Amino acid sequence: MMAQQYSRRNLDFMLKEVLHVGELTKYPYFQDYTPDMFDMVLDTVEEIADKIMRPAYVESDRKQPELVNGQVKVHPAVKDYIKAMGDAGLINASFAFEHGGQQLPVVVNAANEFIRGAAHNSLVMFTGLTAGSAHLIYSFGSTDLQEKFAHRMVSGEWTGTMCLTEPQAGSSLSDVITTAQPLADGSFTIKGQKVFISAGDHDIADNIIHLVLARIEGAPLGTKGISLFVVPKFRADESGNYTIDNDVISTGIYHKMGQKATPAMHLTFGDKDNSIGYLVGEPNKGLTYMFQMMNEARLGVGMGATYIASAAYYASLEYAKERPQGRRLNNKNLEEGQTFIINHPDVKRMLLFQKAIVEGCIGLLFECYFWQDMIHAHGHHSEEAKPYQLLLDLMTTVAKTYPAEYGIRSVNEGLQVFGGYGYTEDFPLEQMARDVRIMSIYEGTTGIHSLNLLGRGITSNNGKAPQLLFGEIMKTIEAAKTHDELIPYAEKLEKELGRLQKVTIHLLGIASQGDNEVFLSDANLYMEFFGTVSVAWQWLKQGIVAKEALLTQNPLGDDLAFYEAKLHTMKFYFHYELVKTLSLSARLLDTEVLTATSDFQPAI
């Protein structure tokens, strides 16, 4: 594995210089922190990444989990990792005090996750799912459920999962058929099957707490009739010890293309009519509750693609600096030695693309996490929090999808830098290319999120959220215009923002005619357009900070190189990526309908 897989300097730049996270400590919610404490969190997690995670990355892929006599066995590093995270108090660090957390800013926790994920993306799944499911129990479950289950999850003693998908339903949760029958003591018998359950079984914790979507007998059809249940692998005996098998059977383990250290399970609940579940909150509100965890996980998936892309970028960069091949294109002297491939323009293009995607997507994701922190700072139900919530609701789907799609492309460019060696197990890109591929599928495919953005995000609340976003982008554009070097880029973004608004109005005109199939037929392209403009906004923000640092700080050495590289990469994104919106807008404004036609099927 490569020595460097992320840039701590860039994380510090984003946290301290772009987002000014230190200022969060002025709010009562974060008043127990000082800015240097945020550095200590990242220092702690760097040690966990270096000592436990990174050394196991390749071996845990080669020796993937196995289902033996009904029990899944995983790599021993998983146990060491979860214990280290629990001992450090990092599983629930961003939870509120009343939930046993430390109220660490979510954006600082995101940087913590980024460091861990760049070292071993598959292990992060275990603690991420455990934290998300515990947070859901704390948010909506009874005090009894919190004390019995959530407390032992955040300590690292037990782990958690989310169980949504069923064989016949896939992403269509309205077709969930797992059932829940009420018992006299208030609990329920659960019966059904769930598939693709990440970390759904393993041998490294005494219990696994499943959050299961199911229908209580007589519930309404569709998503309005779904309830949520805590279903432990083992339930308590009369002494309160969790020793009773709760009829949760590991039916099968999926052999995945990547992320092999995390088992993906097919689970059967209630095969012997003896699987007991405990209702979370009120009946028929399960999907509403689950959306909290799903949205947290969606940002986590965008992060996952980005930190894998980061690891791939730094591996590619190191290789390009060390691999001699050919000569500069203007050099005809064959007697001279070969040059390093980093000196070839096309290799530089691929490396710049990787850097532009990684650092642009970090900007987009950290912005979303920072909005969460501002909601906490002002109070969830305050007037001041409402704009941040609107922006977060709109952009979560974009911050999941654009990094996922472009993270895949970024890793693919990294593999290309390696050439034939990248296709072998001797270098890490082969594994990273497999690991990152799932990110456009996890927590809703790109197609589903694209439908959500155009069909709901843009239209809800009379378009208030996109209006807010466009206003924020315009503020950045106006700030950039105060620097001569940035004026061309401010004007480019302003023009593309106008083009995005024109396309949006055109598509909403189709929607107003009632033809949703045509309106949404190219939602995927709209998502790409929207995401490209959003990341260009983030690059302009970073460019402003870099430019002002060059003007006011007189940086030298590594700092000078860092800020100059920021500006150069910003320019690359605008000249190579933002221009792609021209073709996207041309298609989105095109009136020729080629996919939403009932009388045509692709030829066999």
What does it look like?
The chain has 604 residues and is an alpha+beta fold. The chain folds into 3 domains: 147 residues, Butyryl-Coa Dehydrogenase, subunit A, domain 1; 125 residues, Butyryl-CoA Dehydrogenase, subunit A, domain 2, CATH 2.40.110; 151 residues. The chain is 54% helix and 11% strand. It has 17 helices and 12 strands. The strands form 3 sheets. It has a 5-stranded mixed β-barrel with strand order 4-5-12-7-6. It has a two-stranded antiparallel sheet with strand order 1-2. It has a two-stranded antiparallel ribbon with strand order 8-9. It is globular, with a radius of gyration of 25 Å.
SSE layout and pairing:
Layout: H1 8-18, H2 35-62, E1 66-68, E2 71-73, H3 77-87, H4 106-119, H5 121-140, H6 143-154, E3 159-163, E4 179-182, E5 188-198, E6 208-216, E7 227-232, E8 234-236, E9 242-245, E10 248-254, E11 264-269, E12 276-279, H7 286-322, H8 345-378, H9 386-418, H10 429-436, H11 446-457, H12 464-480, H13 487-512, H14 516-519, H15 523-552, H16 557-577, H17 581-589
Parallel strand pairs: 3-6, 4-6
Antiparallel strand pairs: 1-2, 4-5, 5-11, 5-12, 6-7, 7-12, 8-9, 10-11
Helix pairs in contact: 1-8, 2-3, 2-4, 4-5, 4-7, 4-8, 5-6, 5-7, 7-8, 7-9, 7-10, 8-9, 8-15, 8-16, 9-10, 9-11, 9-12, 9-15, 11-15, 12-13, 12-15, 13-15, 13-17, 15-16, 15-17
